[in-house]
Amino acid sequence: MTPTGLAMAFRFSGIVRNAGIAVIAVATAQGCMNGMVSVVEPVEGVSWALAELRAETISAVRYRYRLQVPRGREHPLEGAVVAEFGWSDPQARDLVLDFKDPADRVRVVRVNEVAVEWTARFDHIVLSPDILVAGERNRVEVEFIAGDDALNRNDDFLYTLFVPNRAHFSLPLFDQPNLKARFALTLEVPQGWVAVANGSATESPGPDGGTTYRFAETQPIPSYLFAFAVGDFQIESAERAGRTFRMFHRETDVEKVGRNREAIFDLHTSALAWLEDYTQVAYPFGKFDFVLIPPFQYGGMEHPGSIFYLASSLMLDESATQSQVLGRASLIAHETAHMWFGDLVTMNWFDDVWTKEVFANFMAAKIAQPAFPEVHHDLRFFLAHHDRAYGVDRTAGSNPIRQQLDNLQDAGALYGPVIYQKAPIVMRHLEQLLGEEPFRDGLREYLQTFRYGNATWPDLIAILDQRSDVDLPAWSAVWVEESGRPVVTVELSETRAGGMDGVTVSQSDPEGRNRLWPQHLELLLGYADGEIRLPVWLSVASASVDPGVGRRVPRFVLPNAAGLEYGLFRLDVRSREALLEALPGLMDPLTRGVGWATLWDGVLEGEIPPDLWLDRLLAGLALETVEQNTQRLLQYLGTTFWTLLSDDDRLAVARDVEESLWSGVARAETPTTLRAAYFQAWRGMVLSDAGIERMRRIWGGEEEVSGLTLAERDMTALAEALALRGVVDADAILNGQMDRIDNPDRRARFAFVRPALSADPLRR
């Protein structure tokens, strides 16, 4: 496209393209005297080149949106926006706003109160610089039909989800994280519906008996955090520590709401208090509402003033497991931590999206501790992060924590276990290197320096590097900018008398690039009558450790006993065989958790046969006393049973597995949360006729599960499990379960899933 306002004949033009970016260097008759004009050609999505240009030339953005929300999904949302901003571009290039399908959805554009011509280019509205006032505030008004793509419209409610850059799928704006703006919103909603958004609201009568909500202007926030929800919601309010909290939800089970209500409000209150104390920054966004959405795509989304949650993650059943209870606390802490890390200070570009996610997960682990004194929190952190991170880093598709991003349309590909699980481990390493107080003080400086603005990972590293004796940029270069994990081995030097006079710890690069991952290790030397722990700082390819005078050769060596280390810890044959035998009887819960995870790596590396592994898992379950470890062993068991065993081997052990799991359900001393975990695992692995018949009796109410109250969700899962196992009366069971479900959202979900449960392959 020839940009408007640069219509003079070209003397020279050159185009450089990179991942969807088109940058055109143009020399005009005027430009030959004054130099080159760099024109950013709009492309699909939002390119880094376009975002960088706008961040340099646009400032102090304010939006005022007005939307009419109809009751029926067949009717569009009609709206208008007034965008005001400073504009100063010495090269007078086109102004580009983002809006999907603008040719079909834009009705009129006015610039500084004058209707103007505009050009549609991909997902953009392109305006000539001739109609703007350089160096002054400019006003762009757009009347439009909102796109449904990011509105998530249901029959009686809708909610926005604009992350990572989907705001322009529905609204015209500058859709990039480093053009923070103040958003004001007016919504006209149908009678009987309510609305919630980032700002506090005033209400007045609206058209046709509806309500008009006027939401106050926000603090500066990026476009992906602008949000609203409208529909048939119930509202619960609570006062805590001088603050009003409001919860919007669609749960029709009054007892379920009452059972969860206080815990949900209390967890938000304690998370806010902890973060205000840790950061020394008061909650920065005024009011605090949250919305529980039944079909929400994620666990939660951190819109300031209006957090959105997956309803089932907060509204727990009576049969909830400990993992689900802990998960709720962690999720609330995670989203609340985002108010500081991500919302108050936002990444400059989505290549650093991990910085907001790592701090949310990292802080959540700290916040949850006081509420669960009975939980082993170092074990909790290890189980929550290492296995899932290893699940990516052991593959050829491993990626660095920090990745290059040329266009925001690809930002969704950056999410995954590397930023959610590996990055918090790396951040704990960083805290360990600096010490807790210097690390905390560095974060406080970071928040104060960049509050309501944007920052990069190098910005933070520069602040922390002033507080460290370690070269943090070099440390970051391998842990953050590189993918993968080291392979760590331990070799013992044995004497002729059966003693040990040396320990060598080595790391190697599985890609053969000679990379080194500096980290603290804690070696555990296990004996029949005790253990010895040896600290190691491994920053080179190989490090020698003095085990002390007169040490015997241990039964096994566990190189990562502290649960903080990260890598493929390859055990020698003696250690592997001894751990398989001795691990269930070790005293320390963290050591057992780390040991099982290390052996699991051995299974996946082909060093331990699946049938032997399954046998040891059943032995471990019989002896395990800590619920967190039990739940992880149940996960290993399920994966081994369904994925690693052959069909014949699976059928051969099915009865033993079912009996072992049912004994866990039936043990009188089993706590309710663990009984629920055993029951869910049993339901997922039943194959025998006797087991299927027991499932049928439980679903039909002919048999109770001692000590466990089964919720509607449990009964739904049983009905689905019976159908998947091909019982002859599956349709009758599914019809009966549909009749049991009262909540309209859960009925809709069950109806959606039901064709996949059919015995008819054409219907599936």
Structure description:
- The protein is an alpha+beta fold and 764 residues long.
- Among the domains are: 56-231, Immunoglobulin-like, CATH 2.60.40.1730; 233-340, Orthogonal Bundle (Neutral Protease, domain 2); 345-479, Neutral Protease, domain 2 (Orthogonal Bundle); 485-579, Immunoglobulin-like (Sandwich), CATH 2.60.40.
- It is 37% helix and 23% strand.
- The protein has 22 helices and 32 strands.
- Strands 8-7-11-5-4-13-16-15 form an eight-stranded mixed β-sheet.
- Strand 9 and strand 10 (124-127) form a beta hairpin.
- Helix 14 (589-604) packs parallel to helix 16 (627-644).
- The longest helix has 26 residues, at 254-279.
- Mean pLDDT is 94; it is low at 1-34.
Give keywords.
single chain; about 775 residues; alpha+beta; Immunoglobulin-like; Neutral Protease, domain 2; 5-stranded mixed β-sheet; globular; disordered N terminus
Sequence-ordered SSE layout with sheet pairings:
Layout (H helix, E strand, L loop, with lengths): L11 E7 L2 E7 L3 H4 L2 E5 L6 H10 E11 L9 E10 L7 E4 L3 H4 E6 L2 E2 L3 E3 L2 E4 L8 E10 L11 E3 L21 E9 L4 E4 L3 E5 L5 E5 L12 E4 L2 E7 L2 E7 L4 H26 L8 E6 L6 E2 L4 E5 H4 L7 H16 L7 E3 L5 H15 L9 H17 L23 H18 L1 H15 L2 E3 L1 H9 L6 H8 L7 E8 L4 E10 L10 E9 L2 E9 L3 E4 L5 E2 L3 E3 L9 E2 L3 H10 L6 H16 L5 H14 L3 H18 L2 H20 L5 H14 L3 H11 L12 H13 L5 H11 L3 H10 L11
Parallel strand pairs: 4-13, 19-20, 20-22, 23-24, 25-32
Antiparallel strand pairs: 1-2, 2-3, 4-5, 5-11, 6-10, 7-8, 7-11, 9-10, 12-17, 13-16, 14-17, 15-16, 18-19, 21-22, 25-26, 26-29, 26-30, 27-28, 27-31
